[in-house]
Amino acid sequence: MTSSSRLDDKGSHLPFWKAGSGHYGDTLGKLSIGSSSLSEPLILSFLDTIPVRKGQVFTIGDYGTNDGYCSMHVMSSIISQLRKKHGESLPIQIVYEDQERNDFNSLFHRLSDETSYMSKFSNVYPLATNVNFYKQCVPDGTCDIILSCNATHWLEKLDTEFKDTCRNIFASEEEQRRFNTESDRDWTKFLRLRARELKPGGLLIVLHLGSSDEFQASSIVRDATPTSSRDSTLQGKDKLVEYTVSDIGTTEVDLMLDFDAAWKQLREEGVISQKEKEDCNMAFAFRTATELTSPFMEDNSPVQEAGLSLIQSDQLFRPCVFKSQWLKKLLEEGVDDRDSFAQNLVTAHRVWSQSSFASSLSDMRSAEERAAILDKLYLTLMKRVAARDPRSYKSDLIVGRLVARKE
Question: From the Swiss-Prot or TrEMBL record, what is one GO molecular function term (predicted)?
């Protein structure tokens, strides 16, 4: 089995599409943007609490940015609010962070687009760094606010090996115990590094893909965003059918279960070897609300010793955009288009998952053979998803939201 997968190794989340094509925003971004657009009021409500120092640059960090699709509107709103309060003379610097093989070309294209904040505001300076966020990315005391949207679930490395599954949630009790230790280690490390990078009074705001193990429908924040702040898929003639936490039922099928089953099916069909099947271990953690806040609650907390204090935490329920599209078509046209639901969902999730499967394939295979295996995997997964009722499918987002301040 592989001994480790790191953010800068082949087992990490790596783009496989044409650089500069905007593929992330066209696929997975449509699922992910809801967490940032629905959290915009939360972010803006804390913005005025950050001390703005005369003669200094106001610096915003966007960590795990990918191509900037999910944060672009939020950044524009932050700049607008700063301009209204502090005027044009305040220089604003935005540091976009992601791993070295990220599709930064797509980010730069978005920044150059006429809809970007760069076409609306002056005295704004976007920069990019390819230092992954398990290292210090900027000097001490650089940032006034650091945002991270749907990125911190990725681990720095994965030493735990799951013998019979790709994902920790289906692993043995001992494997899960070791995995949880690694997850806690990486989350604490991330928080301590951000504490160093923030100025006194600065804010860290994290939107983290969460686990449903603890959530209660009554505690979930749902759709508190004004219509003007939502992404375009929720507006006008394209407005989607909304549904609540209680509508999704209690017998949901986890997408990760079908990922696991599709990979095992390829082994049963002789498409991949036993070693290749076992070598696929996904290095990410969907943390519960308790796991997100626990580093702040521990006695002699290293996070609090670093000067970072928890201000607020909650969870957000975001209906799956593809499930909403399917339901809209069913209700308005009487068409049960499960094939489109499956194609959209699997195409989106291929963005983050393909590198995990690709890295487990033997180096002895040709590029053509590897590509054919991956195509077969996602076709197999698509067929499994299309055979299910989308209403019973766990494709909605539960996002843990955390706000912390540097003292």
Answer: methyltransferase activity
